[in-house]
Predict the 3D structure of the following.
Amino acid sequence: MSTLRIDYGTAIEESIDRLAEQIEAAPEIADHYPTRWLAIALIDGDPGVDDQLRTLEDGVVLVELRDRVVDELRVTLGESVDTAIAGKRFDTVHGIASAVTEGSNDLRMTRTDRIDSIVTNRYLGIPIFLAAMWVVFKITTDIAGAFLDWVDRAIAGPISSIVTGLVAAVGLGGTWVESLLVGGVVAGVGAILVFVPVLISLFLALAFLEDTGYMARAAFVMDRLMRGVGLQGKSFLPMLVGFGCTVPAVYATRTLDNERDRILTSLLTPFMSCSARLPVYVLMSAVFFPAHAGLIVFAMYLLGIAVALVLGLILRHTVLPVNEYAPTIMEMPPYRMPTVRSIWFHTWVRTKAFLEEAGTIIFVTMLVVWLLMAIPVSGAGTFADTDVDESAFAAVAGAVSPVFEPAGFGSWEATGALMSGFVAKEVVIGTMAQVYGVEETERSDPDPSIVDSLVELVGGLGDAVVGAAKAIPAMIGIDLAGEDAEDEPSALMASIKSGFDESSGGRGGLAALAFMVFVLLYTPCMAAVGAIRHEIGTRWMWVSVVGQTLIAWLLAVSIFQGGTMLGLG
Amino acid sequence: MTILDTVLVELRKAKGPIRSNELASKLGVSEPALEGMISVLVGKGKLAGSESAPIEDVVACSGIACGTSCVGLEKCPFIANVPESYALVIGSTSSP
């Protein structure tokens, strides 16, 4: 069998010969190792060989000679010697492979390569990414809308009735316990659970994109966009995580190489709209822009990215300058057809995390909000039997609300929702349900039986399935819903509309838009603040909290005042 | 110039991210062959792999985000599957 001898080039070959001479002059070494192999292993820096030779007298001399030879080679080659050796080996293998295989590169192009040439195209990549995200939000708002109505009606109707019935059955009907359970827990936590169908739709759509392999391409496309404005492309990876939840996104900044990048990305990541903010957009869009809800939600996500990019550009060229960013190779997974099981798994674990949060911190916050609303600070009310306008919650929120008057939502109700939203963004909706929806649980049929309530619950689910099915063709312009499409707004929605119209002098739509922008841009939650402090320190944490709130306020005011000047809203 | 040098030169020329399948096509090698080269270049300190980031050291964020359901980065359901990436180590030498 013939032996393949790799030619490492003149300089390395001369060095091999010098070492080979020294090896052959030392019989105790030459007798145990093939001469050329040992010379190459020495130049290549094989640590095992080094260790064995250092135990021999002639070996030490050989290693010293190797060190001198490698130093000379490094100067001659202008690079590390081991890389040059590895390169020559790859060249040899590549030469053999080319000689014994047929076919051009074009023939080797796979289906994945062909799709990638379109979806990661320099010019088409961003529009395709935006189109994909628009479809995601259209599905989220349109298809989930039918289920959202069902859960909403179920919580306001049958579930409230069941809870009221159970409380009455234990003799506590009409007491503060009923107020706490129905007005606090069911209205507050229930209002958040209303949005579970919306989140399931979002998580399903995102899981589909992830499992097909498209999200990796989205990261690639956004990487290029971020470099285009002077940011490190890798920064987009934590930001991508931020669309789900800001907390792990901030921790994911650890994957960045230098401290300035970590600080910069930790400051920008909270601007990515996390899933907890989605219910706020969906509710406000349904109230004020029902015909364009998908577009409004999509615009919020885009605005978050745009603000992060502009702020990143400013910080990158002022307080956080960073050096040249390294070019990157990104490994793209092949496209594949996702399985139902995998998509459902991703969707379920994310939904479960949302539900667990609703059962812990949100539940507690809702109880605190209810308690503050139950304590009278003026008027003749008593505990749990007071006008909400005269409660401690209204007093505290009312003291802060003038700050938001220039943004059009300077009412104590909206301010209170934003204040409680510092704890977690889901709480914004829960608080709004408590402060705006106090009349909603009043029913035309005050005492339905538990059986009637359950029948209503199941019947509503059937309607929701039909409604969702009709929404699919409606997305491409085929209206199967007909006259049923115009649903009557719930009492909560009507109350929110009237509240925003009042606080904005009749420009409720504009004030709602400013409110959504504020929710998008101000501090995501206490957990995110804790993560930022943990990762980049207390000083930067305050920069993040104050900076985000300031930016949110400035943009909200600009939108409301600018829109008012243009006669919008 | 060896094929490993060509990998680095093509990467520099790209001035941004480059897909591994696109680079393999440019070099006229298969993707598994390119993966082998990338692995050697990472070992030689010419490229830094994103997998070397200390994610495993990240503490469970439940300790920090007290009271929330956050279970830590490794188990967090919101962590997206992002592509493996390898960045050129700035300052590493290569023959022209």
